[in-house]
Specification:
The protein is mostly beta strands. Helices cover 13% and strands 34% of the residues.
Length: 372
């Protein structure tokens, strides 16, 4: 949300969340110089699908595709009119808006069940101070969603990504900061009248890349969205810079994420990319960015990138897959040993610190300039 050229408290907090993680020691300076970083020289922008023109949708943080169009939500907006579950047609026009029975805290992602139930992930926690997080369930034909609260077993986490496993159980993917994120799921069946404990299921380390994005190296190490393919045989995690696709041949989403090797689709220079979904035929990845804080007249635009159906076994390449492909899809780079998140700390800590500070200054300068 833009207010006279200044960031709101919520957007300032989100913009600084990755920086906070770095300064806390979660994100090592080696991310800048990681020798296994995947290149993105051939990365191309996605193909525009449609433009969201409703002024209530300025901070889109989650999206799912449906047979008739799309469902989207805003990040925890200060404006009450924006706290809705919005249904769009195939031209991105709002055709329905469902209100929440009580105020959500920080809605960050969406998922859709096989029965058409819409799941809203109220899991954002920039300050890592929430005693509970929640998911809202909107069943087919329901007038309002139902809230289910959950509690982490260890400590509060900031999270922006939600998946459903083969049984329909929600899986929370934390935001991270170094390329390593954690998976949590309800330990028991969800109930609307109680807080359900979450259980830790493992961690995921995504490969480092060099894809251009507004947050530089900081934006490549956080997970801002997730989605499952309609047939359940693939899932995707996204950062501000890239999409990481995993095969799920046996329906075990957790094992796929914790042991699989992803394919990388660059999502270059999206203004603030927090949303991703599969098209209904499973052939494309669809993304959308927030438009708040962007130049006057900017509208959120759904972009299309080609999805990949099977694991690639060829050697990594910086060439485009084909002349008609709007983006390069490449196998993941190998993990780099040592340190948290598989990154190696630089030997010269002083030099690494200088690089981090220079990168931080560049990010903050970009964010300040973009909102003037």
């Amino acid at each position: 949300m833009r207010v006279r050229g200044r960031l709101t408290w919520g957007r300032r907090a989100r913009a600084g969340a990755v920086v906070t993680a770095m300064l806390a020691g979660v994100l090592p300076p080696a991310v800048v110089l990681a020798p296994g970083a995947a290149t993105a020289a051939a990365a191309a922008a996605g193909t525009p699908v449609c433009q969201v023109r409703d002024d209530r949708l300025r901070e889109i943080s989650g999206m799912v595709a449906t047979d008739d169009g799309y469902v989207v939500i805003n990040d925890g907006a200060d404006d009450e009119a924006r706290r809705r579950i919005f249904f769009l047609d195939q031209r991105c026009a709002v055709v329905r808006a469902v209100s929440f029975p009580s105020r959500p805290r920080d809605t960050e992602d969406l998922a859709i069940g096989r029965d058409g139930t819409v799941w809203v992930a109220d899991i954002g926690d920039n300050d890592r101070s929430r005693s509970t997080v929640g998911v809202w369930r909107l069943g087919p034909g329901a007038k309002q969603p139902v809230l289910h609260r959950m509690t982490y077993p260890d400590r509060p986490h900031d999270a922006e990504a939600l998946l459903l496993d083969a049984s329909g159980r929600p899986l929370i993917v934390t935001k991270g900061g170094s390329g390593t994120v954690f998976l949590y799921a309800p330990a028991t069946a969800l109930r609307p009248d109680a807080s359900t404990p979450l259980t830790a299921l493992g961690q995921v380390t995504v490969p480092s890349t060099t894809t251009s994005n507004p947050f530089s190296f900081l934006g490549r190490g956080v997970i801002t969205g997730a989605a499952s393919a309609p047939d359940g045989r693939r899932v995707v995690l996204r950062s501000y810079a890239d999409a990481f696709e995993y095969d799920v041949p046996d329906g075990d989403v957790v094992r796929a994420l914790t042991t699989g090797t992803p394919r990388i689709t660059p999502l270059p220079d999206e203004p603030q990319g927090e949303s991703i979904t599969y098209s209904r035929d499973g052939r494309s990845l669809l993304t959308v960015s927030e438009s708040a804080g962007q130049p006057a007249g900017t509208r959120s635009t759904i972009l299309r990138y080609p999805a990949t159906a099977t694991t690639l076994t060829a050697a990594p390449s910086t060439e485009s897959v084909g002349p008609l492909s709007p983006t390069a899809v490449r196998p993941a780079a190998g993990e780099v040993g040592g340190g948290e998140g598989g990154r190696t700390w630089p030997l010269a800590l002083g030099a690494g610190t200088v690089l981090v500070l220079l990168g931080l200054a560049g990010v903050l300068r970009w964010r300040h300039t973009a909102r003037r």
